[in-house]
Amino acid sequence: MKPLAALIVLLLPITVIAAEVTFRVTVPAETDPGYTVHIAGDFQSWQPGNSDYELTSTGDHLWEIVLPLETGQAIQYKFTLGDWSRVEKGPKGQEIQNRLHKITGDETLELEVASWAHGEARQPSKTGNIEQITLPDFLDDRPVWVYLPPGYEKEPDRRYPVLYMMDGQNVFDDATSFAGEWKVDETLEELIPAGKVAPLIVVAVANGGDRRTKEYTPWYSADHETGGGGGKHLKKWINDLLPHINANYRTLTGPENTGLAGSSLGGLMALYAAYTHPEVFGKIGSFSPTLGWAGGRLPGMIAKKDKPDITIYMDMGTREWGNFRDDDGNEIDDSIDGLRRMRDILVGQGFVAGWDLMVAEGEGDRHNETFWSQRFPGAVTFLFPGDS
What is the structure's pLDDT at 35? Predict the structure, then answer.
């Protein structure tokens, strides 16, 4: 009965109320007047210099923008001076976490930027053997990074399983990331030689910037007025990317050797792929999946299907969206409840925890790359176990 009850909860209609949110931010007095302050966040695909998200100067180092958002919507954002090399920093110039806020209705947020990055390029942080390639006619020649495991060049007859990852800018290198890197290369360079993870190839594909939301969602969302390109996007991977990788690298093929992982909307897409293309992707890593997209349509779809022969890792932080409080001042964050309902659906289908299903809860973890990178070792160890 639990899976049925979970399905009923997930499919309840959601009433969305539009809100006008004013972001009013004080910037440092030494801010170069030649630059314009921008807001970048998950609600606009993390575009640091989008002209639609320029703030207006109101004098005395104050800048302001009014955005239409949804009451109840949880957002992450930062301020920039037009690109990530001039993103806001802490009082001592240190990196800071994404700002978090849950929309309560029409409201004004009084904010302050402590300092700015000074336009310096972030230093590359890649480790190990990583190649950057482009494929003709594949997603407008966007970058694809390929990590080759230790020993790849020394064992010319050996073949390897492959893990495909979304949001490729953030997988290996801080210099290309828009929100921090996952340190997948550093993790594998440690765990593979230790025998904790099987030697594997990782293929990371850059997202499409302002096309990310459409490409990483299987269905259109009337609430967000976008989405629905996920199925077509996934077929480009299957029809163009996978054959190229298999032809040019020494891969093991078949779903038992092919994984797909992503976070947030990427986590949503990984689970969607598990049930629409189990003949291709047999190992799924879904980090903080956006299960409520399009009214919770993905859990509803999955609940109607039979169990595929795949292995799933799925997780969520207990404080995905930070310190949100109810009317009585109690901290709340119901994202983890969606993960638990999804777990119940999968268990009801026949998945066995510890065998072909792992569901992890990150105590105190939030919705960003820092915490996904911390949970990645547990995920890759479960999906691609070594021999130690």
Answer: 95
